[in-house]
Structure formats: C-alpha cells, structure tokens
Amino acid sequence: LYNLPPQARPQVLGKLDLEGQPLLSPLGELRPSRIAPVLVRWLGPKLPALRLEEFLPQFCRAELLSNGADAVKRTPYFCSGCPHNTSTRVPEGSRALAGIGCHFMASWMKRDTVTLTQMGGEGVPWVAASRFSREKHVFQNLGDGTYYHSGSLAIRQAIAARANITYKILYNDAVAMTGGQPVDGKLSVPQILQQVLSEGAVEAVVVTDEPENYQGVTLPPGVAVHHRSELDMVQRRLREIPGVTVLVYDQTCAAEKRRRRKKNKPDKTVFPDPPRRMVINPAVCEGCGDCGVQSNCLSILPLETPLGRKRQIDQASCNKDYSCAEGFCPSFVSVIGGQLRKPAAAALELRQLEDMLAAYPLPPAYGFEKPFEMLVAGVGGTGVVTVGALVTMAAHLEGKGASTLDFMGFAQKGGAVMSHLRVARSPQALHQVRIDLQQADALLACDLVVAAMPDALATMRRGHTRVVANENETPTAEFTRDPDVDIRKDELLAKIMDAGGPALRLNAQQVAKGVLGDPIGANILMMGAAWQLGLVPVSLEALLRAIELNNVAVEMNKKAFMLGRLVAADEQAAARLAQPAKVVQFTPPASLEELVNFRAGWLTQYQDAAYAQQYRNAVAKVEAREVALEGAASKRAVSKAVARSLFKVMAYKDEYEVARLHTQTGFLEGLGEQFEGDFRVEYHLAPPLLARKKPGSDVPAKMRFGPWMRSAFRMLAPLKRLRGTAFDPFGYTHERRAERRLRSDYLALVDMLAAKLSAENRAAALKLAQVAESIRGYGHVKAANMARAQQETARLLEEFRQPRAESNAETKVVQLYR
C-alpha cells in the first residue's frame, strides 16, 4: 500500500483525524461512549444505510435534573469513635501539617490542617519555610505505621535542623486505612519515647484516653502521661518550647476495636468491650450540636420531634468512644450493664421466612441477550463491595461471566462507594468492566446521596434503568458541624427518579432493625429485594451458596436477603413482621392550632395553666393581625414562627425543668424498652456549684452521677414554683437572668409584630420571628448562640422598619437541567 501513488494510497488514521486533530483523547479510558461518536463521524457518511447516528444518543451523557440537592456530597470522614476525632485538634492560633494516613482527612474538617508530604518527609517543608516565616511553630501529624516506615527519619532531620515543631505521633495500634493490618515490626509507646528523646527531642509526653493503662509501665525519665481531656493544654505548652517536641497520642483505632470485639467469645476476650452505652434524652436535648463538635462523631444522628430536631446515638455504629458526652448538655446518660433489646421478630428463623416466601412466585430468569449491568451505590464500610462480591461469586458458581469494578477511595471511612456489576452468559461475552453511559439495567441505591452523584446518574437511562432505592436518611459529615444541615431527601429522590425508570422505595435500615435487630443487614436486604424483582441475574441457590462461602454472619445475611425478598413481594407482610417493634414516625403539625395546643400543654407542665395561657394570648394577637392582613386563607407563617420561638424562650431549660424532663417524660420507661437485663443509669452533668473547669479552659467539666441522682431530680422538679421568684437559688445566675431577659424581649417583639405587621415588612417579620429558634444549648454554648441571635435581630429590625420594595414580577418555577 505504501508503494502506491499518493492519490491511490489509502489514508491510515490513528492518533490524528483528517484535519490533524486528535482522533481520541489521550486522557482517560477508551470505553464505548468515547469511541462511538468518533466511529459515527467517520463511518456515517460512508455507510448511510446503517443509520448509525440513531444509536448514538444511547452512548452519550444525558441531561440530568439539577435541583437543591446538587451540593449534597458524601465526603469520607473519620469513623465513629476514631482517635483522630480528638488527636488532630490544634489549639487556637496554631496549625498542623498533614501526612499519609487516615488523619489526612483532617485537612477538610476545618481543623487548620494543611499540606501533604510523602512518608519520611513529614516536617521537611516546614524546616525550609520556617526560615522565611514569622510563624514560630507548627504541629506535624504522623501515624505510628509511618513512623516505623520512615517517619523517624523526618523527626531526625527536624532535630538536626533545630526546627521549632511538635510531632504528634498518632499511635493507633493498627494500619487502619488499608484494612487493619498490624504495623510492620514491633513498636510500642515506650520504644518511641526512648528513641525520640535519645535522638535529641527536647521533651516528649503521652496523651491517652486511658491513662490507667500506664500504671506500672516504665517510661523514660520526665515523660508525663495526660488524659485526652488535657490535650489542648498540653499542646499550648509544647508550642512555646523551642526545638523539636513530641506528643504521642495513644488510643486504639475505632475500626480495629470493632473488628477485635467481634472476635470476643464467652470464654475468651480478644478486646475489652465496656458494658456502657451512651443515650441522649431527647426531651432535655436542645439540638445545639455541641456533642458533634466535641466528638466529631458520625454515630450522632438527627432525631426529628414535635419540638424540633434533637439528637440520638446510633447504637449499631457506636464504637464506645464516649467523647460525645463532653458536649455541654445534661441530656447524656450512661447505661451501665444490660444489653440492647432485640425485637420480637429477631427470633424468627430462616426456615420460617422461607416458608412465607413460598407463597410468592420467583422472578423470571434473565435471557442474557446482552450482559446485565447493575450499579450498587452506597456508603463505605456498610457492605456495598460485599454485595458485588456475592453476586459475582454466585455467577461464577453457575459458570456465567461476571465482573465487578469498585470505586471506593476511603471505602471504610463513610465516603461514596460505587460497584459496577456486569453479568453475562459466559466470560467471553464480557469486554469491559465499567458500566458505560446510560447502560445500567438496574441501580441499587443503598444511599441516596451517592446514588444521586453525577457519575451514578450518568449510567442510568430514562424509562429503562430500574431502581431499588433506600429511603433511609444517613446524614453527611457536615452534620457534625452544622446542626441544621439537611440532605434534601425528596430532591435526591427526584434526581434519581428523573434519570431512571420504575422504582421500589423502602427504608432498609428501619426494616432490618425492626426485624433482625440490627441495621447492618440493610444492604443485603436491598440485594434480596432486587433479586425478587428480577434485577440480580443469578439463581437463588447460587446466591445463598455465595453467602455461605463468604462465611461472615451467614445466618443473619441469609435472613436479611430473604427479608428483602419479602419486602419486594409483599411490603405489608414484611411490615407486620416488625410488630410490635416501636417505630416513631414524626409528622409535623398541619395547623397552627395543633402546634399551639401541643406547646401550651407542655408549658402547663413546665409551670402552670396561667403561664400557658400567656403563651396562647401572645400567639393569638399575631394570628389576628396576620389573618386581617391576608384573609381567612392565610397560611399563618409568621404566627407559626412566633408559636415555635415564643415557646422556646418561655420553656427555657433551667435546673427544675431538666429534673422534670429526666423523671416525668417517660425517658426511663423508654430505656426499659431499648435495653434488657440488669442495668443502671448514670447522668453526665455540670452542676454550677460542683463542676470544676476543664484543664486550661473556662468551660465547666462534666461529672458522672449515679442512680441516686434520680431521687434528687424527683425532689427538685416540684420546686418549679420557685422559678423566677426571690426564693429561686438558681435564678440569680447570669444564664438565668439572660433567659428571663430574652423572654421579655421576645414578648415585646410579639407586641410589635401584632401592631405593625404589614404586606411590605412581612418577609422581614418572618425572619425576625424565627431568630430565637437558633438560640439552643446550655451555658457557654447558649450564650454564644444568644449573642449571634442578638446581632441578627438588630439587623432584621432595621429591615422590618424600612422594608425593601419587593418585585411584582411573575415568578416562574422551572426545572434546570445540567
């Protein structure tokens, strides 16, 4: 061919097209959706009879629905109870440098942690930069595995360079980021201390969650052991010492604790499992979020109640770190002894579930005209990858071809995980492992946030991809810092439904917990539901055998799978199994009357009927003004905001109210429903006259009080009649005076709204009425929220008095597509 004349010689194209431009991008993978447009452009004009352009839309990225959930992300985060939740904090005015390991995630947690270096390079950039900076000192995070690998060399160079730096060696007893392997070689805290001091570190200290473990342990002379509550004070002292200092933070990795505790046997304890669980009394909880700030823990979940969003502890994921109790709030109690009570349905045997399912038809077998493609989207550490492994093993057992491609990153750390599953009649029928654009036949949406990510939605095709969606609202990491964050469940579902086809929606965690007693089986339950709908193209026998070969919680996983099948076949039958399990579904009050009646009843118990009537009268004044302004069809938005906020400032939680809420609201009875066996309750409180200050802080430290405190509460609660009188011993504190002043100010605001509310200032009035809802918490937490609320109120008052003209332009609601 090359010897032919130029006019007769065929053109051979490769990297470049006829115009000399790149034929295919040199970046990324060569999948069909990237090759197809090129082939259509090249072959289409030459073979018009094939009408190739008609098939092209199936290989292109479809337009995706854009709405308020676009910004919701599933960011990898520290595990519940992770030592790094505490160890990576730095004092105000300092910053830390990151390194290789889980602790690197502190760099996106607003913890003044920056940069990244390779193993053995920790602190090296600072040695150079410090010569050109007015900054005197930094902290450098360094994992114990990295220290053994080459991190000790980094410390050695910093000592040689006479740098001012504190190395925080995070001794967690395992290389957790990659699965919990032990550190290569023997490494102990005394060995680390001896080495760094002998090589020239000026000072070394130990900070730990269990100082008692160091009793009888020989440490180098001068090394002090501190409780983790003293971390801030210790770091403030070390940063003032010239030269290289070392802080060894000793606390076992939370994920490793969980792994080891699972291996505990009645006759053998692999790792201690303390008989203590934290519980939050929702009536006492203010929903301020300080427990999340103190613990940074993902096991603290939102709890929607008639009085707003509160907090609850997810006992299934809690790793018993207990730092949440440091939140400045009297709602925390410890349950000592006893066990979590299993629902009655947990006694159901696998055979009984199989007998129930015998009444329902099996799904039709898939024909395999093409490979079946299923995307599994969920949260790292919950079994998403396990679902893929089970399906591919089942396909292998049947002689089918199967592949799985897992996108997981920080898979164990609560981040987004996607598993691309492709099953074909034979291995020869599979030519790629990734599900291409618009090619998914099914989506297993184990988590709505991950399933609504653009990469997941791009695999779906409208009207074709069938969806099994888990409606459980798993908070994102933002909830640890923002108490009001919302994952926008309805908008996430709208994005998924718009991109796909028919769907089954269920709350997998709720069903698994109600029947199995543990939400951990939720993803296997989802797989069972998908199988019953014909969306898992392997036989029942092969899939059950794959669960057996996996050899992890075999009986529970089989039951979860069968339960999922039952949900898909007969959702009502599955719901009946959970009875009499108590499931509280909160529904917001539909009317102002319902909202006011509930709160007036509460205020009667809080103080008396006259106090409740004062509340009713105040709300009624605003309602009368609003109805006069808008007519009988008014939605009473301002009145509802006043009803919520006025209740909050009138029912402030003083010592009498906390005592009442701990003894007269059914909380103790609820503990009896949640736990079984012999247990006792301890209270975490900071009494004004007894609590000492935290080390190096003006914040009172909480103390633990035994069951006798219940008797004290019962004696204190009836003394509410003293509230606000000259005989109220607590009423003279700064906090109580501020609360009474806030109540008076808000009642004055109500009078102003009732007199001056107009169409022009209505928007400002609504915001003004809502400000008090943000005043949550106790002590210094509430004081800070109160100060912010006062500033916002002052700004809104100006807007209320001088309203801006509102546009009368017609507002059109449109759906935006990306």
Beta-strand fraction estimate: 5-15%
Contiguous uncertain segments of 5+ residues: 580-584, 806-818
**Helicity, in percent?**
25-40%
Termini, distance in Å?
Answer: 48 Å
Shape: globular
What this model shows, in words?
The chain has 818 residues and is of the alpha/beta class. It folds into five domains: 60 residues, no CATH class; 174 residues, Thiamin diphosphate (ThDP)-binding fold, Pyr/PP domains (Rossmann fold, 3-Layer(aba) Sandwich); 134 residues, no CATH class; 231 residues, Pyruvate-ferredoxin Oxidoreductase, domain 3; 126 residues, no CATH class. Helix content is 37%, strand content 14%. It is built from 27 helices and 21 strands. The strands form five sheets. The protein has a seven-stranded parallel β-sheet with strand order 3-2-4-5-8-6-7, with helices on both faces. A six-stranded mixed β-sheet has the order 14-15-13-16-17-18, sandwiched between helices. The C terminus is likely disordered.
Output the keywords.
818 residues, alpha/beta, Rossmann fold, 5 domains, 7-stranded parallel β-sheet, 6-stranded mixed β-sheet, 37% helix, globular
Report a brief summary of the structure:
By secondary structure, the chain is α/β, with parallel strands linked by helices.
Describe the protein's topology.
Elements: H1 32-43, E1 65-66, H2 84-87, E2 96-97, E3 113-114, H3 124-129, E4 138-143, H4 144-160, E5 165-171, H5 189-198, E6 203-208, E7 225-227, H6 231-238, E8 244-250, H7 254-262, E9 276-280, H8 290-295, E10 300-305, E11 308-313, E12 332-340, H9 350-357, E13 372-379, H10 384-397, E14 401-407, E15 416-424, E16 442-445, H11 448-451, H12 454-457, E17 466-470, H13 489-499, E18 503-506, H14 508-516, H15 522-532, H16 540-550, H17 554-569, H18 571-577, H19 592-606, H20 609-630, H21 637-650, H22 655-663, H23 667-674, E19 675-685, E20 703-705, H24 708-716, H25 734-756, H26 762-770, H27 779-801, E21 816-817
Parallel strand pairs: 2-3, 2-4, 4-5, 5-8, 6-7, 6-8, 13-16, 16-17, 17-18
Antiparallel strand pairs: 1-21, 9-12, 10-11, 12-19, 13-15, 14-15, 19-20
Helix pairs in contact: 9-17, 10-16, 14-15, 14-17, 15-17, 17-18, 19-20, 19-21, 20-21, 20-25, 21-25, 21-26, 22-24, 26-27
